Amino acid sequence: MTILDNIVKDKRKEVDLRKGLIPVSQLEQSILFSRDTISLANNLRNSSTGIIAEHKRRSPSKSVINQSLNVQDVAKGYEDAGVCGMSVLTDGKYFGGSLDDLLLARASCNLPLLRKEFIIDNYQILEAKAYGADVILLIAAILTREEIKQFSQFAKSLDLDVLLEVHNEEELHKSIMPSLDMLGVNNRNLKTFDVSLETSKALSTLIPNDFVKVSESGISNIEAIKELKPYGYQGFLIGENFMKTDNAGESAKQFIKSLL
Ligand SMILES: O=C(O)c1ccccc1NCC(=O)[C@H](O)[C@H](O)COP(=O)(O)O
To answer: pLDDT tens track of the chain, all 260 residues?
Structure first.
């Protein structure tokens, strides 16, 4: 069993429980459900830095990163730093996140928010919209092509952007379709947890130019961004590098300042 197999197994149980607690009709009545979303893809296309900053308390690869930051302060700090968007991990068991984190981030900033989750059911896409997200993540490693198509079309019908994440060529070939906005290459090998920017470089030429290219994980300095830009990357998802500090927003601000 890989880490993703375990996460998905737990996620199926969790989603079934959540469906029993909050019916779809209640999600659709959320005041945020009718809010106009903000496009992360557009922000990235028009940015010279392309930073998507993540709220991440812990992870399977690093266990504890930072349990003491307050998500509202982090969201305000990231906005003040001038990031293009914020990613909020909502998985509880493996990442220490929650849908409340998403809601609090929504209440604290006007950035496009990515619900960083292991999506296996339409219900989670409705939750994303109801709790204030603008973007959902779909992970090719845990979905069939049919599921990617169905979930991405459903997200688009709710005016949400879609970021599709791949780890290798096979996942990329399986996934390319017009209902995606951004293609993310995850630099973290989920078997060994090693990170290598070479993954983003190797897959870059296989991603059609109609999609915004995003490089994810293991980005810890501005040299990495300078290295990846010539490969066509316009988005850079950074979690641990900001979250491991006492002030994630300030850390993002200094990072962006040195990029400009
Ligand atoms: O981060 C992990 O350990 C992890 C393990 C298993 C599945 C997903 C995982 N991370 C999710 C992410 O994609 C990252 O949080 C994101 O790309 C930011 O990465 P980093 O800058 O390295 O914190």
So the answer is: 889 999 999 999 999 999 999 999 999 999 999 999 999 999 999 999 999 999 999 999 988 999 999 999 999 999 999 999 999 999 999 999 999 999 999 999 999 999 999 999 999 999 999 999 999 999 999 999 999 999 999 999 999 999 999 999 999 999 999 999 999 999 999 888 999 999 999 999 999 999 999 999 999 999 999 999 999 999 999 999 999 999 999 999 999 999 99
Report the C-alpha gap between 34 and 182 in whole angstroms.
Answer: 23
| Distance of alpha carbon 7 from alpha carbon 51, whole angstroms | 27
Domains and CATH numbers, the chain: 3-259 (3.20.20.70)
Model's pTM, two decimal places? 0.97
Ligand 1 centre to CA of 59 (Å) is: 7
User: Is the complex ipTM higher than 0.95?
Assistant: yes
Residue 159 gets the label, from left (phi > 0), alpha (psi -120 to 50) or beta, of left
Residue 238 identity (one-letter amino acid): I
Known catalytic residue: 244?
Answer: no
Q: How close is the Cα of 97 to the center of ligand 1, in Å? A: 13
